[in-house]
Amino acid sequence: MAKKAAVIRGDGIGPEIVDAMLCVLKECNTQAELILCDAGSEQWEKHGGETYIPESTMRILEGSDACFKGPTTTIPRPNAPRSVAVTLRQKFELYSNIRPIKTYQRITPNRNLDFVCFREATEGLYTGIEFKISDDAAIAIRKVTRKGSGRFINSAFAWAKRYKMGKVVAITKRNILKVTDGIFWEEVERASGENPGITAEEIYIDNMTQQLVIRPEQFNGAVLISTNLFMDIISELASGIIGSIGLVYSANMGDSFAMFEAAHGSAPSFKGQNKVNPTAAILSGAWMAEYLGETHIKEAIFAATEQVINEGKYVTFDIGGNATTTRMAEAISELAKQHLRK
Length: 342
Description:
Shape: globular
CATH topology of the largest domain: Isopropylmalate Dehydrogenase
Number of domains: 2
Strand order of the largest sheet: 2-1-3-12-11-4-5-10-8-9
Largest sheet: 10 strands, mixed
Low-confidence stretches: none
CATH architecture of the largest domain: 3-Layer(aba) Sandwich
Order of helices and strands: EHEHHEHEEEEHEHEHEHEEHHH
Distance between the termini: 26 Å
Number of strands: 12
CATH superfamily of the largest domain: Isopropylmalate Dehydrogenase
Helix content: 40-55%
């Protein structure tokens, strides 16, 4: 029986890069059933409601094995709904947001990076617990639990073990946030004791930003882990180091469901121009194919994407070319099909 994946087209550039991703998967003859659905601020502004995710879309998600989420816009005002990503991470307990960071030889010829960012995705400041204590003061709650930290940290060590990565680097601010980051670090120490052969190090968030800029190569072969907001910032910085946020693909993993998405946002100023980089969406879709049992498709798309980027003939403006979104996706699908025929 074919696996099912819900595909949210999203806002801004979302539909364009989702179409590019779907084109590549279909050209590679995926057997998964891909079900298009709507969520995000654009449909919410038309139809209203308490959430960016219509009930019809939620029913599709609940009946699927996985989800692909195109970029969605979160309106930054107090009465607007919670973001689509945060809502789905919490509903399906997708506690590990994973963003591999890898350079491409043509884009950064003097830099060779290969590490992975693991972000706890259900707790921290993203729980959205905020309240006013007066007209001029407000408080946000940073929630860190042993259960939430433990399951997330276990998944990071499992990744390190699976991919033979010898080090886990925990990013905290434990000298100031002694209680919340204290629980997080205790779980790192526990997991480290249960996984001999994988070392655990701690680095404070402020120092980490400096180290990533000055000497990011020191983190090669490592799994970087942190709480929700800290790793959101660190993984964004890492994407800049490799040349473009348009290259960074990601997954949100739980025990029985996964959501795949490009790491970048909806970029409404580029909407409809057919010029944005589809790489992150295409690689996220390829990762989803692997999750749904089609490892051969993932491997073919990853190999093809690397070849297209390093050749530089059919790439978008952000990585030194002038190809359209559509043309770059076509180049990747053409090469991917060649890989699959081998």
